[in-house]
């Protein structure tokens, strides 16, 4: 991989717009396309999405679970799709939500190694075992130019039960965001005091050459932004657009217009298939709305 993930992401957004399309081949969607719930149906669905969109959008985000459920044949479909998507210029964010400690986290991070058969640009991870548990993934990402998006303030029902829990005077969600801010701050390592927010105000996470490679997941359907993203230095992955009720107006309401936000849409684009032109048209409608 050439350059850091943050640099590649900023370049892709400048060239193609900020849209990330999730590849979520769940059973009802396969049925809508007239495809069987089988490795063959999975392959036909995935091939159609990659062929239509990999040369068109900045990021594709396959959900690993929908491929794992078909065993080794499902993973083979995903391996082929990732190679073809990246060859066509799309960045691939593997939605795996992995989180563990030590050598296990190190093994999960292998998805970011270029020699891995399923090598991707970035990975979603979960910090439930403590932000420091993700250090092996941070180290691998830095070594190979990969990226991470850490679950921080999601908007699914019940998320606040844990994400609003207090750790000292901060919520758990804010601790995660502050830790990721540290990862994007040169010279900071786990165990050091978190960088003072006033010292990194200029690292606001805007698109550009200095975009950091470590981001957070913040839902696009939150009623209000109850975390502080100032000085994050990296991108925000914002799921929930379209079928889950989020809109471009919600993005502007929550994040303003100057922040590096990667809005993600799945069903609202995928249900337009299997026609390639219809898939591209659906993606274009979202891109136009997001960049208006």
Radius of gyration: 18 Å
The H/E string reads HEHHEHHEHEHEHEEHEEHEHH
CATH class categorisation:
Alpha Beta
Low-confidence stretches: none
Overall geometric form: globular
Task: Kindly state the number of beta strands.
Answer: 10
CATH architecture: Alpha-Beta Barrel
Overall average residue pLDDT: 93
> β content, as a range?
15-25%
Determine the CATH topology: TIM Barrel
Q: What number of domains?
A: 1
Structural class, by secondary structure, is alpha/beta
Number of helices: 12
Query: Which range best describes the helical content: under 10%, 10-25%, 25-40%, 40-55%, 55-70% or over 70%?
Result: 25-40%
Q: Output the CATH homologous superfamily.
A: Aldolase class I
How are the strands of the largest sheet arranged?
1-2-3-4-5-8-9-10
Instruction: Give the termini separation.
Output: 31 Å
Largest sheet: 8 strands, parallel, barrel
Brief sketch in words of this structure:
The chain has 292 residues and is of the alpha/beta class.
List the main descriptive attributes of the protein structure presented here.
alpha/beta; TIM Barrel; eight-stranded parallel beta barrel; two-stranded antiparallel sheet; decarboxylase; pyrimidine biosynthesis
């Amino acid at each position: 991989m050439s350059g850091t993930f943050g640099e590649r992401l900023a370049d892709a957004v400048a060239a193609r717009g900020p849209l990330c399309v999730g590849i979520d081949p769940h059973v009802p969607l396969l049925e809508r396309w007239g495809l069987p719930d089988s490795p063959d149906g999975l392959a036909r669905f995935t091939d159609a999405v990659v062929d239509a969109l990999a040369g068109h959008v900045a990021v594709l985000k396959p959900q690993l679970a929908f491929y794992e459920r078909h065993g080794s044949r499902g993973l083979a479909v995903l391996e082929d799709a990732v190679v073809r998507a990246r060859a066509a210029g799309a960045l691939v964010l593997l939605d795996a939500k992995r989180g563990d400690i030590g050598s296990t986290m190190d093994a999960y991070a292998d998805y970011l190694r270029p020699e891995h058969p399923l090598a991707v640009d970035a990975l979603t991870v979960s910090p439930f075992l403590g932000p420091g548990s993700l250090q092996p993934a941070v180290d691998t990402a830095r070594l190979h130019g990969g990226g991470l998006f850490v679950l921080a303030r999601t908007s699914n029902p019940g998320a606040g039960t844990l994400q609003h829990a207090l750790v000292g005077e901060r919520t758990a969600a804010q601790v995660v965001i502050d830790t990721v801010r540290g990862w994007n701050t040169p010279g900071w390592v786990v165990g050091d005091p978190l960088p003072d927010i006033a010292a990194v105000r200029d690292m606001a996470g805007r698109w550009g050459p200095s975009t950091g490679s470590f981001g957070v997941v913040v839902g696009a359907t939150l009623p209000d932004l109850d975390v502080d993203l100032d000085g994050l230095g990296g991108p925000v992955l914002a799921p929930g657009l379209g079928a889950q009720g989020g809109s471009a107006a919600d993005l502007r309401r929550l994040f303003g217009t100057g922040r590096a936000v990667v809005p993600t849409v799945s069903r609202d684009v995928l249900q337009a298939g299997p026609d390639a032109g219809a898939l591209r048209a659906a993606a274009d409608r979202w891109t136009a709305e997001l960049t208006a």
